[in-house]
Write a structure and sequence with these properties.
Layout: E1 5-10, E2 16-22, E3 28-33, H1 40-48, H2 50-54, H3 57-61, E4 64-68, H4 73-78, H5 111-123, E5 127-134, E6 137-141, H6 145-155, E7 159-160, H7 169-176, E8 181-187, H8 194-213, H9 223-226, E9 235-242, E10 248-254, E11 262-266, H10 273-288, E12 296-299, H11 320-332, E13 336-342, E14 348-352, H12 356-362, E15 368-369, H13 382-388, E16 393-398, H14 418-428
Parallel strand pairs: 3-4, 3-5, 5-8, 6-7, 11-12, 11-13, 13-16, 14-15
Antiparallel strand pairs: 1-2, 2-4, 6-8, 9-10, 10-12, 14-16
Length: 429
């Protein structure tokens, strides 16, 4: 089976930079986020966009989307704009106006910008969308007028053609490769308005896909043929089956070492976006820290057929999704299953069949920890299925709709979605 994701490069500190393909036909759109690690709304959007893509957004639009959701993993981990060499990656591209300085001493000196440039040249997309903050606008370069206007109309953001910054991705791709490129800028804002920001930018991305679908079609991409993937023993993507509607059920094995893995599943009980966001956030962190964790298998969209409707419907245990999930559990015999789904009262952790030492790792006060085996479990649910098999379970219940917002030049404060990734890291490290 063709690979749909691969490691396209490594950061200065050796973290994997993952690119993933969605859609099977049509023109290619390249989407990347978090070139600047301190732009928290861009980081968050890179996490959140993956869920609707898993739910078939690219396929329905008739485009092929290549997503690099965390282009600067060291900067994200270090909470800095620049990479670990203190180079601004968005000033490090090989443009005619390149200037030594914040963008490094020479163009493409950094492994992260090399990975981005190499994949753009290989994929030759009809458009590039790069997610930033903190001035709300659609900033465009190259032959992008029509695309920029479509995205501006969909989002309500103003459309600007700003200066061609020395060494920027926009200058290189837009002016030297003649590829339409839009820099999507979130606003710098407090947390209260983030829901509206999220939907406005999502609508603009959908408008971009509609525009792209009208461009000349590309051949169906086969990543193994067009990209030279790096060896990455700590990251292995695979497909466990297909849904009733024919969508792929994607999984990833992350981490190193031997032994029974931990299985993380989201979407088995509902497709609430807040829970799916936490699952994608946890995935991004585990890929970033893959060299330090035990083998972990991730399925962040167990029921993608209902994702387009934001459905609260549980997994149909007579359908192919449940059969594929059950077969995977039989195959890998997980030592622990972590289920991520929506909670209705407050963010919390519940456990069933968990040994004392495991619960001790969770008793930090970051999240409310329920009594052992205290929460009720519906027999027909995914958790009920796990309990029938006496598999130890941890449930991360997400009640908070975590922020998309970013406050310029402020310390890292992000409504603390990281309470969930910290909890998972304690379980898998």
């Amino acid at each position: 089976m063709q690979k749909r994701a691969c490691v396209i490069g490594r950061s200065v500190l050796g973290r994997a930079i993952v690119g993933e393909l969605f859609g099977s036909r049509g023109p290619v759109v390249y989407v990347l986020a978090a070139v600047h690690g301190s732009e928290r709304s861009a980081v968050s959007f890179g996490e959140r966009l993956r869920a609707p893509l898993l739910g078939g957004l690219a396929e329905r639009a008739g485009v092929q989307v290549f997503l690099v959701g965390a282009a600067n993993p060291d900067g994200i981990a270090l909470r800095t704009r620049n990479n670990a060499n203190d180079v601004d990656l968005n000033r490090n591209f090989d443009t005619k106006n390149f200037e030594p300085g914040v963008g490094g001493q020479c163009a493409l000196s950094e492994p992260e910008s090399q990975a981005i440039a190499r994949t753009i040249l290989a994929l030759r997309p009809c458009a590039i969308l790069t997610i930033h903050c903190c001035e709300p606008c659609m900033d465009y370069d190259g032959p992008s007028d029509e695309l920029a206007q479509a995205m501006g109309s969909a989002s309500g953001f103003p459309v600007y053609k700003l200066y061609a910054a020395a060494g920027s991705l926009g200058s290189w791709a837009g002016h030297e490769l003649d590829i339409p490129i839009i820099t999507v800028e979130f606003a710098a804002q407090e947390l209260i308005d983030t829901g509206e920001q999220l939907w406005r930018v999502e609508h603009s991305i959908e408008a971009a896909f509609e525009w792209a679908a009208r461009q000349p079609a590309a051949e169906p991409l086969v990543l193994e043929e067009v990209l030279e993937a790096l060896e990455a023993p700590e990251f292995e993507p695979f497909v466990i089956g297909h849904t009733t509607a024919g969508l792929e059920l994607r999984a990833e094995r992350v981490g190193v070492g031997e032994g029974a893995p931990v299985l993380i599943v989201a979407g088995a009980h509902d497709n609430a976006r807040r829970a799916l966001h936490v699952a994608e956030h946890v995935r991004r962190v585990l890929i970033s820290e893959a060299a330090t964790i035990c083998p972990t298998v991730l399925i962040t969209a167990a029921n993608p057929d209902t994702m387009a409707r934001d459905s609260a419907a549980s997994l149909d245990f007579k359908g192919p999704q449940a059969s594929a999930l059950a077969a995977l559990i039989d195959q890998i015999s997980p030592a622990l299953v972590i289920v991520i789904d929506q909670a209705h009262d407050h963010d919390r952790i519940d456990t069933w069949g968990a040994p004392t030492e495991l619960r001790d790792k969770l008793a930090t006060g970051d999240l409310a920890l329920g009594a052992p085996d205290g929460a009720p479990v519906l027999p027909a649910s995914f958790l009920g299925h796990l309990r029938e098999r006496e598999i130890a379970c941890v449930r991360l219940g997400v009640a908070t709709d975590f922020a998309m917002g970013d406050v310029r030049e402020q310390p890292f404060e992000f409504a603390d979605i990281e309470v969930f990734s910290r909890a998972v890291l304690r379980l898998v490290s």
